[in-house]
Amino acid sequence: MKQEWKGALRFGAVLFVLYLAVHYWEKLAALTALAAGAAFPLVLGAIIAYAVNILMSIYEGWYFPGSQNQAAVKSRRPVCLLLAYASLVAIVLLIVRMILPELIQSVSLLLQELAPILQALSVKLNESLGPNQLAGLFASDGTVNWQELATKAVNFLLTGLGGVMGSLMSLISTAVSAAFTAIVSIIFSIYLLTGKEKLSRQCALVLKTYLKPSWYGRLLYFLETLHNCFRRFVVGQCTEAVILGLLCMGGMMLFQFPYASMVGALIGFTALIPVAGAYIGAGVGAFMIFTVSPWKALLFLLFISVLQQLEGNLIYPKVVGSSIGLPGIWVLAAVTIGGGVLGIGGMLLAVPLAATLYQILRDDVARRNAAPATADGTPEGS
What element of type H or E holds 372? Predict the structure, then answer.
């Protein structure tokens, strides 16, 4: 009887919560969006910490491995943490150094090509305005109506100045907000990385306290599988992006395409997005090359098509596909669904999530189809 009352109370509580969620959906959605916006720097910091931790763990394995020296033990975490962040900053600066000069050159060349077109358009526009646009600026005797001219000039300056000031304030606000988010995220990621073992023990203790042992074991298995899939995916995707970028830059230098280093770095960077990323970089690169030579842009697209076939059939399956254990058809499906739901972020998250579910399903199927064991522990029928 007591158990039935408990079940009825739980069912009633669930119905009441669902009623509140439906009835106050707009307020609940607004409150959720506000909370998500406030927590975004912390979420971003956790993502940064997870990515940096992969590199930091590699450095910790190289930094006096197995040493019991107190100086080495105490300095391992701060030194490896500093090396991990310095490595990431160096990579970003190297990419900017490779892209920025040639990008400026390409934009300058494009502006030079557009200058005659813009000048001709300006002439056509002035011809189409007609004399009515100048009405009121001249008196009946042909002299300038200075009062009307001053009024229109002041109105123009006030309107234009207001728009410029509004845009400037919006730009400053966005820059300050982005800087604040970046600083808080980096500080939070450093706190997470310096005390990751203690934080892990505390989380495990909380979960053990409030979860049944069976649920705790399942959750721990899921989190370990998720971590392994994400780690292998990040390492494999970065390796594949570096290989593809170097191959693209080397091929462009061999065939004497312009902007080889810029396009190679761009394609390597966009290749971090599974399947579709390299095509995005190739489209931007083709446009840049088109400003120099349309014929070379066409040859570049042909070169990228061949390189993508090599990458899709040889490099990606060996480097990424084998590391996450997910067949190519499911990689494509995950990227398509993730991109449709969450855009580029969904593309990045969908593959390791799909690999996690695939691994869990495969393990469960193998466990369910395993031969039942006899009393002495040997498989039945052996």
Answer: none
Buried b (16+ CB within 10 A) or exposed e, 241-251: bebbbebbbeb
Q: How many CA atoms lie within 13 A of 145 on its CB side?
A: 12
The whole-model pTM stands at 0.71
Cα–Cα distance, 346 to 327 (Å, whole number): 19
Q: Give the count of beta carbons closer than 10 Å to the beta carbon of residue 183.
A: 11
In contact, 358 and 325? CB cutoff 8 Å: yes
Residue 46 CB partners (closer than 8 Å, separation 6+): 188, 189, 192
- Cα separation, 339 vs 316, in Å, equals 19
Nearest partner of 307 among 299, 96, 237, judged by Cα: 299
Residue 98 and residue 260 in contact, taking contact as beta carbons nearer than 8 Å: no
User: How much of the chain exceeds pLDDT 70, in percent?
Assistant: 78
Which pLDDT belongs to residue 83?
A: 93
- Average predicted confidence (pLDDT) for the chain: 79
